[in-house]
Amino acid sequence: MRNVAKASVTVGSLGLMRLLGVPWSWSLAASFGVYLGIGGWKYFYIAVRTAKRDLNGLYVLLQVKLALWRHLRRRSNIPSIFAQTVKLHPDKPALVYEATGETWTFTQLDQLSNSVAQWALAQGWVSGDVVALFMESRPLQVALWLGLAKVGVEAALINFNLRLDSLVHCIGVSASRGIVFGAELADAMLEVNSSLNQSMVRFCTGELSPDRLASLGAQPLDPILASASRQPPPPCYPLKGFNDRLFYIYTSGTTGLPKAAIVVHSRYYRIAAFGYYAFRMRADDVIYDCLPLYHSAGNIMGVGQCLINGLTVVVKKKFSASRFWEDCIKYNCTVVQYIGEICRYLLSQPVRPSEKGHRVRLAVGNGLRPSVWEAFTERFGVAQVGEFYGATECNCSIANMDGKVGACGFNSRILPNVYPIRLVKVEEETMELVRDSQGLCVPCLPGEPGLLVGRINQQDPLRRFDGYASQDATRKKIAHNVFKKNDSAYLSGDVLVMDELGYMYFRDRSGDTFRWRGENVSTTEVEGTLSTLLGQADVAVYGVTVPGVEGKAGMAAVADTTGNFDCAAFLQGVQQALPPYARPVFLRISPQVDTTGTFKIQKTRLQREGYDPRFSTDQIYFLNSRAGHYEAVTEALHSAIVEGRMFL
Fold first, then answer.
1. Residue 563: in which H helix or E strand, if any?
2. How far apart (Å, rounded) are the C-alpha atoms in residues 599 and 547?
């Protein structure tokens, strides 16, 4: 009986696997390998425990796959899919801007994006040109990139926290022909204006005086859009297809400044559709989107539900823990977005009636620790948490569809090749891939941490890897001979661990990147900035764990040969040069920083010792954000930090 049951799990899914484009031989071989590896009754036990979950996952995968296939055949793109959404919901609210209370219907959003398209044509921009968008979150940002896409122009979505060199780099690497910036960021633009390409035209949205506009060489955009035609633009040639570029989203690199990740139309659709089906969203849902629109979470997982599926999305200018539930009640929100820190901030708020008077049934996001997860759902009465894992550019996204506390997703252990991702062994210190005698990567066993990789197939929108604007950066994220000879796979750079049922849990970020306040922080980039501020001093930047806090706090070890380190002056420079999430929370002032023979900074010992003053004679400082200064870490202060009595 057991043999029959085991066989039926494999054979019963062959038709579905064929639709998903998975060769039967791979699946049968993989299933047989799992059967031999797990052995007898345990295979049957895992099959029984995971059958419902895996079948649901296969169904979601099939829904997304069929939708992608249909749009590929039709040569659809995001503007054409949005046009169908407008026809279905012309007068329904599409975007609500919380800061002003303004509501845009689907027709109004369509018409304003048409005005943007007409303005772009008048500028002489053509399909394939790039325009940078640098503004705080607002519905206009959506209208801008959507309107540009209608004429094939690609937007570069710039992080509004960036300043100075990082800002110049991000604008420059996209080769933008123009930039639209918000009036609220005029000071940041002024700081870099002379360093930008002078042939790049500049437009400002929002109120700015004529003198300020003149100093920036910018034109006011709002009156131009108000007077532009709202008729659809004529078809652009060559027409952008489903696998052509839509826009760029910047992601922190492990070797320096941010990288411009390429988002093609099919990737935008895949991410939004995956979230919609995996977490069982509904057509009448209202989403509260308090995440920045320069991120894929806010602009694709959130706004994508509006453009693709016709949901209403409330755009929040900036997250506010004290206003969160009041906003949800005011706008009748049923779905909220989060990063792990947002849930922790909400739990730290005093109890108020609104936290139980809302209609929110689903929270979608990533980075939620198990202890926060349970406390969040219990206190606020949110029935479902939709935790997922996935970078903007990756081809190995996973989702927790059945509420397994702490898991960021799963992969089937019985039919692993239906969705070809894997955890592979790496050298702990170097993160180099471990190879077997045949030169292939070594898969991890349950309980073993490993690097998440995804097999690349450029013909499959689910598995393609589009890379970055930089070809060199793209090559560094691809490995060969991973699953089998002569294949290629995307390297996520993240370490996860899988349990015996196939649930995956986020473990750590590899390389020179750590995550803090929901943002990826490049240690190499921060080291360069701090070194420049300190007259080219040696600086080591790394992430350190703080008990009870998501991610890792930034710590900088600074070589000070004079003994006159000025914390106040340092903080002032850091505040001007770095966004809040990248500023060091801890400082370690040393006579010198350990380096290798090739002058690479060694961080292993520094990370191990952390910010505990008992482990070092170096002076250690903590950034007291409420007091606005760095203060020396004593044993008493260290205890307060690790016990959660200090605000980070």
1. none
2. 32
Are the C-beta atoms of residues 426 and 511 closer than 8 Å to each other?
A: no
Which position has the token pair 């501020």?
533
Contact 440, 424 (CB under 8 A): no
Query: Long-range CB contacts (< 8 A, 24+ apart) of 36-45?
Result: 38/413, 40/2, 41/2, 43/6, 43/414, 44/2, 44/5, 44/6
pLDDT for the residue 8: 39
Token pair listed for 327: 């906003």
Instruction: Report which of 279, 552, 285 is spatially closest to residue 397, judged by C-alpha positions.
Output: 279
Q: Do 396 and 490 contact (CB within 8 A), yes or no?
A: yes
Q: How far is CA 456 from CA 64, 611, 642, in A?
A: 18, 41, 42
Q: What is the pLDDT of residue 430?
A: 76
Q: Are 258 and 251 in contact (CB under 8 A)?
A: yes
Q: Please provide residue 361's backbone torsions phi and psi, each rounded to the nearest 5 degrees.
A: -115, -15
Pairing verdict, β 398-399 and 629-632: unpaired
Q: Which runs of E-coded beta strand occur in 340-487?
A: 362-366, 384-389, 398-399, 409-410, 421-424, 450-455, 478-480
**Separation of alpha carbons 400 and 387, rounded Å:** 5
| Upstream peptide bond of 591 is cis (omega within 30 degrees of 0) | no
Q: Are strands 201-205 and 218-220 parallel, antiparallel or unpaired?
A: parallel
Q: Evaluate whether 77 touches 242 at the Cβ level (below 8 Å).
A: yes
Residues with pLDDT less than 70, the chain: 1-40, 252-256, 429, 508-512, 595-601
155 membership: H or E segment, kind and range: strand 154-157
Give the distance, in angstroms, between the CA of residue 160 and the centroid of all CA atoms in the same chain.
15
Output the pLDDT for position 515: 82
The count of other CB atoms within 10 Å of the CB of residue 593 is 19
Per-residue pLDDT tens for 86-143? 999 999 999 999 999 999 999 999 999 999 999 999 999 999 999 999 999 999 999 9
Closest CA to 409 of 380, 374, 452: 452
pLDDT of residue 604: 77
Distances from the Cα of 205 to the Cαs of 148, 202, 403, in angstroms? 16, 10, 42
CA atoms within 13 A on the CB side of 496: 31
**Cα(first)–Cα(last) distance of the chain, in Å?**
57
DSSP string, 472-510: HHHHHTEEESSSSTT-EEEEEEEEEEE-TTSEEEEEEE-
Work out whether the CA dihedral 193, 196, 200, 205 comes out positive or negative: negative
Kindly report the backbone phi and psi dihedral angles of residue 9, in degrees, each rounded to the nearest multiple of 5, phi listed first: -60, -40
| Residue 369, φ and ψ in degrees, nearest 5 | -70, 150
For the residues of 48-112, what is the DSSP string, one character each?
HHHHHHHHHHHHHHHHHHHHHHHHHHTT--HHHHHHHHHHH-TTSEEEEETTTTEEEEHHHHHHH
DSSP output for 506-527: EEEE-TTEEEETTEEEEHHHHH
Which residue type is seen at 36?
Answer: L
pLDDT at residue 252 in the model? 62
Q: What is the pLDDT of residue 458?
A: 96
Q: Which residues contact 408 (CB under 8 A, 6 or more apart)?
A: 366, 387, 388, 389, 398, 399, 400, 496, 504, 505, 506
| Whole-number Å distance between alpha carbons of 98 and 80 | 28
